[in-house]
Amino acid sequence: MTEYVSTTPGLFPLPDWAKDDLSDLKGHQKHDLIGGDEGGEIAAAYENARSDVIEDQQNAGLDRIVEGQLRWDDMLAHPLAVHDAVETRGIVRYYDNNNFYREPVVSDDLEFSGDVADELEAASELTDGDLQAVLPGPYSLADLATDEQYGDEAAFLDAIADFLAGEVDAFPAHETLFLLEPSLVEEPPEDGADERASEAIDRVASATDADVVVQPYWGALEEKVYAHLLDADIDAVGFDFVANQDDNIYNIQEYGATGDISLGLADGQNTLVEDPEAIRDRVDWVEDQLQVTEFETVYLTTNTETFYLPYAKYQEKLEALAEAADLAEVTAA
Amino acid sequence: MTTNENRDQFRPEDHENDHFIMTSVVGSYPKPKWLNRAKELYQDPDHSFDEDDYQEAKDDAARLITNEHERAGLDTVVDGEMRRNEMVEFFAHRIEGYEFNGPVKVWGHNYFDKPSVVSEVEYTDSWLVDEYKFTAEAADRPVKVPITGPYTLANWSFNEAYEDDDELTLALADLVNEEVEKLVDAGARYIQIDEPALATTPDDHAIVGEALEHIVADIPEEVRIGLHVCYGDYSRIYPEILDYPVDEFDLELANGDYDQLDVFKDPEFTADLALGVTDVHVAEVESVEQIEENIKKGLEVVPPEQLVVSPDCGVKLLPREVAYGKMANMVEATRNVEADLDEGNVDIERGAPTPADD
Lengths: 333, 358
Description:
The complex is a heterodimer of chains A (333) and B (358).
Chain A: E1 3-6, H1 16-26, H2 40-60, E2 65-66, H3 78-81, E3 86-93, E4 100-106, H4 115-126, E5 131-136, H5 138-144, E6 146-147, H6 153-169, E7 176-180, H7 183-186, H8 193-205, E8 211-215, H9 223-229, E9 236-240, H10 246-255, E10 260-266, H11 276-289, E11 297-302, H12 311-332
Parallel strand pairs in A: 1-11, 2-5, 4-6, 5-7, 7-8, 8-9, 9-10, 10-11
Antiparallel strand pairs in A: 3-4
Chain B: H1 5-8, E1 22-23, H2 33-43, H3 51-71, H4 89-92, E2 95-100, E3 104-107, E4 110-112, E5 115-123, H5 129-138, E6 145-148, H6 150-155, E7 158-159, H7 165-185, E8 190-194, H8 205-216, E9 224-229, E10 248-251, E11 272-276, H9 288-299, E12 307-310, H10 320-342
Parallel strand pairs in B: 1-12, 5-7, 6-8, 8-9, 9-10, 10-11, 11-12
Antiparallel strand pairs in B: 2-5, 3-4
Helix pairs in contact in B: 2-3, 7-8, 9-10
C-alpha cells in the first residue's frame, strides 16, 4: 500500500522580519553575503528564523521537516560559497531566473566543511524523527561552480561528490535526503558525462542510510540521462510535473521508475495556491498514466525551491501539500 | 554626411560640431537624500508631513535632476525617475489586475515587491503623462520617457491569471500602447521601452518582437522608439532584434568591457545604436579619454549618424556626484569625438571583428 508523504525541497524564503533584520545586520552588497563564520546577532536571527519555518512546517502538517536553508544566500551554490577552499567572484544569474548568486571558484582541495551538518544539528533539536536533509546534487553543484583546482570536468565532479558524501556522513539522523539536481535538466550532461553524473549521485547517496530522493526540475530529463540516473542506488527520482507532464510520463513509461517517486505538483514559483483537491487529482492522474506501477512511497512536493515566493504564499503552499497528502491517503484507503 | 531625420530632430540648434552623436541617459538617477527623508516623513503616521508636502518634494527633485542633466550638457534628458520606486512595482501599482503579496529575494538581501497578476490587466488612469508634462515644462532640452516593457512587466510578476506569460505580455503590450499614445498626444517624441528581462531566456526575442508591434501600432513614424536591454546574452537575440519596429537599441556593453560587441557586427547593424559608454557598477568616474575610446567602439558597429551614447543602464545606485561626473565626462567625450570626426581624424573600420588579445 502506497504511503503519501508531503514534503518540500527546502530553500525557503526568509520570514519578512528576518529579511529586514538581516538586511540591516549584514548589508546589501556582494561582500556582505554569508561567509559561514557568522555569530552574534546574525546567528541569532537565523536561529529564530529557522524555528519559524520549522514551526510553519509542523503547523501545516508536513510529513518531512527541512531546516529551511535560510542561510543559503547563494542558493544551491551555498555549500561551496562558504567553503575555505573556494573564492567567490562576480554575481551571476541563477539558471534562467531573475536571481543571482556569487560564482564560487574552487581553488584548493575540497576538505570537510560541516556547515550543512551544523544547520541540521540545530534543526534536529526542533524536530521529532521526521527530519529531511537537503543538498545540491553533485552534478548541479559542479555545474554552478568554476574549477581552478582539479583540472578536468570528471575529476572536478568526483571531488564534489566526495566532498558532499563527507558532508552527508556528518549529518545527524535524518529520514530522507533530497538531492536537488536542476542542472541535469538545464545543462544536460553529454555522452559519458551522464554516466559519471549518475555515479557521482550514487556516491553521495551511499553516504546515508536514509531514503534518497534525486529531484531534477524545470522540465524533464533527457531519456539517456534518466536511464543512467536509474542506475544510481537511490530510492526515488523526482519529476517536475508543473513544467512538463508529457516527457516525464514518457520517461517513466519507457524506462520504468524507482520504487518510490517524488512528484513536483505545486508550483514553487507562482503565488497561485493550488487547491489540495487539485493536487490530489494530479497524483491520481499520474498514477492512472502508469497503471502497472505501484509505488511504495509517493512524495508530494513543490517542483522547485520556494524562496521565489512571498512568505505568506510559501506558507499557503505548505498547507496545500500537507492536506493533499492526507487526501491521497484517504482516497488510497 | 548622411542624415538621420528621426534622431536629428533632437539635435540642438546651437550644436557646435558638424557631426552629431546624440547623448542621452537610460533613466534613473540617484535620489537626493532629502527626498528619501521626505518619503520617510510622509510614511510616518505620527508626522504632519502630508501628501501635498511629499508631492512638492517630488516635484522639486524632478526639476532639480532634469536641470542637473541639462547642466551636464545632455542632448535629451529625463527627470531621473524621481517619482518612481522600482521599475516593475511603479507600473504594477497603476495597472488594474495586479496585487502585492510581499517582498521576494533577487539576490542576497536585495528584495523587491514582486506583484501577482490575479485578473485581467486593465488600463485605467494614465501612468506617466503628468510626469512627462512636468518634466517637459521644467526642461529646455527634449525629454525622453522610459517605460518598463511588457515582457519585463510579465516576466518579473507572478502570473496567476493568464494561460501563459506570452499571453500576459501581449495583454500588457496593449496597455503600454495606450500609454504611449497618450504620451505622444501630450507632446512626447522620444519613448524608451525598458526590457532588462530580454535575452535572459532562450528565444524570448520572438515574444518581445510581437509585443513591440502592439506597442507601436498607430504611433506616428517621427516618434522615436528606443529599446533598452541590459545584462543578457546578446548572441541569443541578434540579429533577430533587427526586425523589431524600433529606431534605436540601447545596450549595456561597457560593464563587460565590450566583450559582446562583435555580436552586433555581423550582419550589419541597421538600426541606431545607443551605446553604453560608462559602467554603472563602478563608482568611479571614467576619464574623458577612456569614454572617447568607448564611443569609438560604437563606430566599429554603426556610422556616426546612427550612434547615440548613454550610460550602460540607470545610474540610481551610484553616489550622486559620481553619476553627475559620468554624465558630464560622457558629454565632453562625445563632443571631442564629433570634433575629431569633423576633422577627419577618426579612422575606424566598421564591421571587422575585434582581434583576439595576443
